[in-house]
Structure formats: C-alpha cells, structure tokens
Design a protein that fits this description.
heterodimer; A: mainly alpha; ABC transporter involved in vitamin B12 uptake, BtuC; B: Rossmann fold; Rossmann fold; 3 domains; six-stranded mixed sheet
Chain lengths: 298, 561
C-alpha cells in the first residue's frame, strides 16, 4: 500500500515538468511550428531558474525569470523559423545545442568544478502527506495551466486563430489573421512553459543544478505531443504515464526481488515506456496541416 | 457594336458612389508587367465582370485589391475615400469579401468556426452567435448550410457557398468572385448565379473574374476586358450591344482569327498560329479486323467505402477521340492514373492494340504504344531538369552511347521538338522556369515523339491560355487524324464537345452514359454529370433548356449495362 502511494506521489511530481513543457510544445505545434528547441529551452529554464532564485533569494522569482528566458528562447525559434524561414528541424536542434552549450559554459565559469550550491527551494503543500503532498507547481500544472490551455485552444478567438494558422496559414491569412504574429506568440508562450518545466527541476525537485538535469525530458515531450495527438488532456495523460513508469522504476529498483537488474536498465524504463506508447498509439496520427511548413505570403 | 475604351477617368456623374474604385493600379513581377495602370470601379447593385485570358492579370489585380499582393503604383478607393489595404484584414474591414479559386477554408474546422475565424477577437468565442449568423447569411443567400458540418466533408459547391457566407457574415458590401464556376457543374453554376442575383438585388456589388464569355454575358451589368495587364475596354451592357466574338477579340487581340468550329462550340475566337503539317504522321491500321487501340475491361479501383472507379467496358478505336466528362472527383483522376501506369488497378484488364498491358509499368506501356499527358503537370516534371533532358527522360535508352548520354543527339532532338512544337525556351533552360503552356508543349512533345497509337490525355489544357489550348487541341486532332486513338479526360465541357467523337460521362466512378458527339449538349452532359439518369437527363434538358439546343429525339443514348 505505502509502495503504491509512493509510486503515485512520484508520478505526479515527475509528470509536472512534462505537463508544463509538453503543453508548451502543444501550443507551438498547433501553430504549425515544431520546436525541437524544447530540450535546450528546458535546460535554459532549469539553469536560469537556479541562478535567479539564488540571486534574488526567492524560488518564485527564479521561476518567473526562467519563464522569461524560455519565452526569449521561443522568440529565437520564431526569428529562425518564422522570420528567416529556416528548416524547423535544423533551427530547433541548433537552438537546443546553443542553449545547452551556453548554459554549460556559464555554469563552468561560475562554479569551476566545485560542488553544486543550494538555492531557495519550493516546499511541498500538505507537508509530506502521501500523494497530495506535492509542490504548488504540480497543482498549478494540473488544475490551472492544463484546463486554461484547453479552454483557450477550444473556446477562444485566440485558440481558433492559432489552430487555423497551424492547419492552413493561407486560409488564416485570407481571414485577416497575422500568421507571423500568431506563431511568434505561440512560440514565446510555449517557450515560457518549457522554461517553467525546466525550472521545476532545479527550483522544486532538486534545489540544485547539474549538467544532466534535463536528461532528454524535452525529447520525451516531443513524443508525448504526438502520442497525445496535439490535444491537451491526452498529452497530460502521456506525462502521467511517464511519471508512473519512473515512480514504478524507483520503487522496484529498491525491492530485493529485482536487486540483480542493472540500475541503467531501470533508468531507461520510463523512456522505453514512452517509445512503446508512441508505437502502440502514436501511429497513423493526423498532423496539423501546416506542420513544419514556413509561410510566406506571395 | 460600340465599345468605349475606358481610361479610368470620367465616370458618369449620375451614378451612385462606387463601392470600390481602383485607380492606376500597377504591379510588376521582374520583367513582367502583370497589371498596367488598371482603373475600374464597382457600383452598388451591379455585377462587374473582369474578363481576360489566363495570365492577363485578373487574379493579380484582385490580389492587390485584397491586400494579398502589394501594388507598385496606384490605389484603391472605398466609397469615395482613398484607403491603404496592406493585408486581407484591412480589406475585410473595408467591406470587401473574396472567394478565390483555391478556397481559403480550414478543412478540419466546422463551417461556424471558419466563419468566426475572420470575425473574432482574441477573447472567448461566441459559437452560438456565429451559428446564428451562418444561418441568417445562408437565408440571405437562399441556400441551406449545416453550420456544424466540417468543411472537409463538404462538396466543392458547398465549400464555395461557405466562402460566400464567410464574406456575408463579415458585412461585406463588395464580393469578389475569382473564376467561381471553374470547379462547378453547370447546375451548381446556375445556382451560384441565382444567389449572386439575390445579393445584387440587395444592393451588394459583385466583381466577377472569369474567362468564360457566356457566363459573363449572362450575369454581368458591366464588363471590363483585361489583356496583357492592360484594360482594353469597359462595356456597359445596359446601354451597349456586344457580341461574344467582339469580347473574344478584345481578350486575345485584334489579330484573332475565327475558327468556325471553335466559335460555334464556345463562342470564342482564337488565334491559329500553328497550321497543319506540324504533327507527326502515324501509320493507320487498315487491317480487316480493326482492333481498338485502347480497351479496358472490368476495371476497378477500390476506395474506402465504395469503388472509386468501376468500368465494365471502354474502348477507343483508331482515329477516334473519346472524351471523358465528369465533375472533379468522380473517378477521372483514377482512370487517368490507372491507364498511365501511375497506379495499379484492383481488378480488370487494360489492353493496348490487343495486347494485355495491365501488369506493365510505364516503360512497357510506352513500348506497347501509349502516349500520356498526366493530369498533374507539375508532378510530371523535375523543375530543375533542363528542357532537353526532360524531353528524353522517358526514352533515355534511345539516347545513350554505351553507358553515357549522347549529348549531341539529345541536343538535336531538343532543337527539333522546340521548333516543331513552338516551345518558347532554349534546350538548357530548367523546365520549371517555363510557363504552363510551354511546359505542357514539352510534355506533349515528349509523349508524341514516340508516335503513340493510343494517347491518354488528362486535363491537357488546364490552366493554359487560349493560344496554347488551341495548339494542344490541334495536336490531339492531328494524332487522331493520323490514326491514333485519343482518350481525353477533361473537366472542361467546351473542350470535350469541341474535340470528342464519343463522350463518356463518369459519375461516382461508373460510366453514367456514352453519347455520340451529335447527341450531346451542355445541358444533357451537365445533368448526367450531376447523377441524373440518362433518359431523365435528356427529357429534362429538353424541357428546361430549349435554347441550349436539346437533342431532337429522346432515348437515343446508349446506356452500358
């Protein structure tokens, strides 16, 4: 029983950054832009959030600065893919490489090999009660951010315009919707959520920064969005599935029955689950009509 | 007849303030002047038609007016006031609505969502209000539309109605229709014009872009003719008499010569730059038992719900042109693809000159005597490949010396084809830089230089100007005269009526009727294309459209089992 509760507690915590970043990716992809800069943007959010909360002596301020940094990274993607019209794959991977390398560089300058310092860290609500004892950001993600994004995409003019731009930029343009503006907006807002997801790792979960902090969670989000068919709730479900696999892994790894299983295999489990889920449910999906396509008015 | 040459100034003073007025609009693309100081206006309650060939600059002019292209010079006035329209949003706010040839609809969204797209701000959507607005606008237009239908599930005619609804909901006072009937059946076109008349009666202005003389004369109050980017005339039909032939001359130029046949079928004058003697002679099969050059038996292409194509029997004889008519999406594309070895049929046989070629690929069918003009011209070429290489691409073996290309022979072949087919290009030009007409001539040269005995031509003149159309028609006629059999798949009824000896109508993938040319007319074909039974089609065409020249006797249609 306690083990089950521990798995569920872990699931919600682990899923939180994926919910933020995955929904950020849903927003950008629904506008027709694949943001492969997500891994780098999460990394940037984790690093900047860590630095800023240390400098400003506040975890919340650190999170805010991380979101701004994420928005800036989204704007960089906009510059490359919307304004210049570069191939989205190349722009995204380039952005990730740039951001990860830049953060590593600054990190080495600041703490030349020394032990990672601790910064102000969010504390859990409801103490350490099982399952509901979570960081406030987890509640924010599941009960505020996800419903709001769902509602905005479905029931507001902004969401309608965003979806139209992602399905048929020509039609959106002819209807008087600015395709570049909409995509910039999607990229910056989506980038802010990716930054928030990254900051959660340092400011809430760990309270410290390490060079392998994101460890492919951005790429997992890319898979989750396809798995979730660009819809809010299935993407949240995918994040919870990843979280569940990681919680399970942590629990099983410490039971004596599975003691002989190599640790590396356990670490790989959540990723294997995501790939398996993608293979089972992610085939034959209908991509947004303008996915990967730059738009230039003739 | 009298035609006033309007230079943009001096509108009659008694007329109402124009809804929109274009003054000296000019747009150039590099060397090409697409619109050259064009001035025209549209008043409330009138249909002003803008007539011109493909490439005359009609669409460019409209794109400039609607903010989709930026004019180099000139401006637009709305209700007497000069306005700057730099985006479609500006145009919509100024009271303009445009229905383009390619619809600007988002397929996965509902009718209401598409209508709301141009209307909503960033805040919460008023879906209920949008739905009501759609229903109200549909009533104004006199049509029925399901506001919750997904656009991608609608027919082409319905989608066009959604486009018009979109404009109406947007309080549009001037509706621009760009070649609206190009994708419609004659019946859908008639319904569209009924709706347009309703709107005009309500005080709206309509700017209709077209190259179809008949429909323009049918519906317009005034006609402006555009040629090579210049406005050659504006005719007010209320005060001036004008003959189709005169308009045609204004469209294509004073040097236009009348081809009696063509004028009869289309009311259109054409240039005859290419006289006989250009085409290639093919040997006529004078055997005692003539074998059809192309025969199809029990051919089937499966779709998701029902077969996309199911043809029990279709033959093309030597020297015969068989026209395949039908509304887009009724199996013509599949028929062309299957015959041209683009796609394998799910059942049935295809034979060329008595030889079963069903299992053969393109090369084998070329060997057996097939010449093909594929429906998708752009997909038939590699844009960066030179003209000379495009010309030999399908016969590369014949132009090799050992393992290498024989460059001299390729060049000689290209020069010959360029001369013979009047292609305006040099052998080394990338074929993608050619105009549609010249590109089609290259493809025609490639198909015909092999001296095919059976020619399958899918939409061979789609998007070509009148001169190039005429050239393609001449070539196809020449091939038939030389003994080849031609299967002409076309959505252009004028073209089919002009060329075909026998007309086959496809409906939902099946042959709805086979008619001899003399038994066919627009009205009958239109009804058959819309799915009417052959007898009913003949009867109702005879009663509904006596002026269209209905057949003298009913029941003379041959209906395949």
């Amino acid at each position: 029983m306690t083990q089950t509760l521990a798995v569920l507690t872990m699931m919600l915590t682990v899923a939180t950054p994926l919910v933020f970043a995955g929904l950020g990716e849903v927003i950008t992809e629904r506008s027709g832009v694949l943001n492969l800069g997500i891994e780098g943007t999460m990394y940037l959010g984790a690093f900047v959030g860590f630095l800023a909360s240390g400098a400003l002596h506040s975890a919340w301020w650190g999170i805010l600065v991380a979101m701004l940094a994420g928005a800036a990274a989204g704007a960089l993607m906009g510059l490359l893919t919307v304004t210049v019209g570069v191939n989205q794959h190349v722009a995204g991977i380039g952005t990730t490489l740039l951001l990860v390398a830049a953060c590593n560089f600054v990190s080495r300058l600041k703490s030349s090999g020394g032990a990672s310092e601790q910064v102000p860290k969010l504390s859990k609500l409801f103490g350490s009660t099982a399952v509901i004892g979570q960081y406030p950001l987890t509640y924010l993600a599941l009960f505020v951010v996800a419903p709001v994004i769902w509602w905005v995409l479905r029931s507001t003019g902004m969401g309608l315009k965003l979806r139209a731009v992602g399905e048929s930029p020509e039609a959106a343009d002819a209807a008087g919707v600015s395709v570049p503006l909409t995509r910039y907006l999607a990229l910056t807002v989506g980038g802010a959520f990716m930054g928030l997801g990254g900051a959660f790792l340092t400011v809430a979960m760990l309270g410290s920064f390490s060079l392998d902090i994101v460890s492919g969670r951005g790429w997992v989000c890319i898979a989750l969005v396809i798995f979730g068919r660009w819809k809010v709730w299935p993407t949240v479900g995918g994040a919870l599935l990843f979280g569940f696999a990681e919680g399970l892994e942590k629990q099983l790894a410490i039971t004596t029955t599975f003691a002989s299983v190599p640790n590396e295999l356990w670490l790989a489990l959540p990723y294997i689950v995501v790939v398996a889920a993608l293979i089972i449910w992610g085939r034959g999906v209908r991509y947004p009509g303008a996915y990967l396509k730059a738009y230039k008015r003739a | 007849m009298t035609v006033s040459v309007d230079q943009g100034g001096g509108q009659p003073a008694e007329a109402a303030v124009p809804l929109v007025r274009l003054v000296g609009l000019t747009k150039t693309f590099g060397q090409l002047v697409a619109c050259d100081h064009v001035s025209l206006d549209v008043k409330p309650g009138e249909v002003h038609a803008l007539l011109g060939e493909n490439g005359a600059g009609k669409s460019t002019l409209m794109r400039c007016l609607f903010g989709l292209a930026k004019p180099d010079d000139g401006w637009a006035e709305i209700a007497g006031k000069r306005v700057a329209i730099s985006s479609p949003g500006d145009a919509i706010r100024a009271g303009l609505g445009m229905v383009t040839q390619e619809f600007s609809l988002v397929g996965p969204m509902t009718v209401t969502e598409n209508v709301l797209l141009a209307r909503s701000n960033w805040g919460p959507l008023d879906v209920a209000g949008g739905r009501q607005a759609v229903v109200a606008a549909a009533q104004r237009l006199g049509v029925e539309v399901d506001p919750d239908a997904r656009v991608e599930d609608l027919s082409v005619g319905e989608r066009q109605r959604v486009e018009i609804l979109k404009a109406l909901v947007g309080d549009c006072r001037l509706l621009i229709l760009d070649e609206p009937t190009a994708v419609l059946t004659p019946q859908d076109s008639a319904a569209l014009f009924t709706a347009v008349r309703r709107l005009v009666a309500q005080g709206m202005g309509v700017l209709l872009i077209s190259h179809k003389l008949r429909e323009v004369l049918d519906i317009a109050n005034r006609i402006s003719v555009l040629r090579h980017g210049r406005l050659t005339a504006t005719v007010d039909l209320a005060t001036e008499q004008v003959e189709p032939a005169d308009l045609a001359r204004l469209m294509v130029g004073a040097e236009a010569l009348a081809s009696p046949e063509f004028v009869e079928a289309t009311g259109l004058d054409v240039i005859h730059p290419h006289q006989d003697g250009l085409f290639l002679k093919t040997e006529v099969d004078t055997g005692a038992h003539p074998v059809p050059v192309l025969a199809v038996k029990d051919l089937r292409v499966d779709g998701e719900a029902r077969p996309l194509l199911q043809i029990d029997h279709l033959e093309v004889g030597s020297g015969e042109i068989v026209g395949v008519a039908g509304v887009s999406g009724n199996g013509q594309a599949e028929l062309g693809a299957v015959l041209c070895a683009i796609k394998a049929p799910d059942a049935g046989t295809i034979s060329l000159g008595g030889k079963d070629v069903t299992a053969l690929g393109p090369a084998g069918r070329f060997e057996a005597g097939l010449g093909r003009i594929l429906e998708d011209r752009k997909a038939s070429i590699a844009p960066t490949l030179s003209v000379e290489h495009t010309l030999v691409l399908e016969d590369i073996e014949a132009f090799k010396r050992g393992p290498f290309l024989n460059r001299h022979r390729i060049r000689r072949h290209a020069h010959k084809a360029i001369e013979r087919y009047a292609i305006k290009a040099s052998p080394t030009d990338p074929v993608g830089t050619l105009s549609g007409g010249n590109m089609q001539k290259v493809l025609l040269a490639r198909a015909l230089s092999r001296r095919p005995r059976a020619i399958v031509a899918s939409q061979p003149t789609r998007g070509l100007d009148v001169g190039a159309c005429e050239f393609v028609h001449d070539q196809l006629k020449a091939c038939a005269a030389g003994g080849a059999g031609v299967l002409l798949i076309s959505e252009d009824l004028d073209e089919i009526l002009l060329l075909a000896d026998t007309i086959v109508v496809l409906y939902e993938g099946r042959i709805a009727a086979t008619l001899a040319r003399d038994d066919a007319d627009m009205a009958t074909l239109g009804l058959l294309m819309a799915g009417a039974q052959p007898e009913a089609a003949t009867a109702s065409a005879a009663s509904a459209a006596p002026a269209a020249g209905a057949p003298s006797a009913a029941g003379e249609k041959e209906v395949p089992a």
